[in-house]
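Chain X:
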Amino acid sequence: MPSLVRVHAAIALIERDGRILVCRRRLRGVLGGYWEFPGGKRRPGETWTACVRRELREELGVEAAALRAIGTLRHRYPQRRVTLQVFRCRIGRGKPKPLYSLKLRWVSPAGLRRYRFPPANQPLIAQLASGCGIRGIVL
């Protein structure tokens, strides 16, 4: 039996006026068309913090500020094992633009349940939608 591919990625919870920024993936590729939190794969030798900062620059054209790691999500898909390091942050400079996504939306925590997110994100979606707020996340 072949070994599973391991994916390590950082994701950012960015809140503004009580809403959280989400991105819609391009239609082609793994989980095409799903919604996700901004972020992406960590490069070999890259720190988690450097990863989330780079991904926000590449995907949204913004500089991250006040980064704080709040936990880790792990999920096993049929072909891969995913580890997501979750960060709470704010935008220090720039206005988010969908540079790599189809579109961006600011969504209320309760509204996140109406969007199709990857299974790995479901524990985070459940907590946010429950009303605990970003500061109350326990992973």
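Chain Y:
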Amino acid sequence: MDQLDERHMRHALTLAARGLGRTGRVPSVGCVIVAPDGRVVGRGRTDDRGRPHGEAVALAQAGAFAKGATAYVTLEPCAHLGGNGPPCADALIASGIHRVVVAMADPDPRTNGQGIARLRAAGISITEGVLRREAEALNRGFVLRMTENRPLVTLKLAQSADGFTARALGDSPWITGEEARRFGQLLRAQHDAILIGIETALADDPELTCRIPGLEKYSPLRIVLDSRLRLGHRSKLVQTARQTPTMICTTREGGDALRAAGVEVVRMPPDAAGHIALRDVLQTLAGRGINRLLVEGGATLANAFLKSGFADRLEMFTAPMSLANGGRCGAGALTVGKLHEAPNFMRVSTRSFGADRLESFAATS
């Protein structure tokens, strides 16, 4: 792989990563435009409103310097109309770009190879697959929504060094320190929606917002799985529903008082056990353009996602403390009938936040 191509594509991927959780149903695309003399003359990512796309932002910045230049794009330029402006493939052609380097194809059936084909037909040189693996990881939520009709699911858990998530009494103390909790807030801003179960909602009365200064407006859609509509009207989620969108998924009729408070109540058919089927929840979210879902519902809900095979990433915080004398088991309590049925994950990174450790895992199958 050409080192210059790799360097500029990493730049574009860094730009795209800044838009995760902010661009709605549209994927966050990064674009870097490099003049023949090696100068970066334009760069950008998809706007928080979903339009303009990263290519349009970078082309506007480059202006006349785009002619004869090379564009590095993290996702195949779109070939379909949507919103204001022409498809990105057409905009690149009109700019006089000489070469386009693409990290990965666009799985959206409205494009899916047509963008690259259109560029080639216009005589533009195309290089594909530069840092494809990194781009696929970045766009995993969008890819899953296009191919499997569900969002990417990230499980966030905090546990003690001996594997417990909270004291047995259920008073849910802070296990991790302030630095780790601040990063947890950033994770919220990087996802389109955040989901918890009703037991967590009742025990903790959380707000589920991003409270990092400057990122407050990126608080995700808040979702509670509440089969029997037990969430109280005085809960923080209900009281703030008009400020931060909130959804309750239930199997029951009713919920008029919750709706009157600004909560969206979505009724779903119960599964054989009378519970809400996770597949139905994920498909509903995919239909609303949710690409990335963060699950913070504790060990029980995390295990349900693990057993169902819907967990794509794990963000596991571990604090240097012991709760062995009175704790509730974490995700390590997952049981499977046979060894080959156990979910498989690969650790992709390890970070430290003060005395706490964060291990990030990605599903391998």
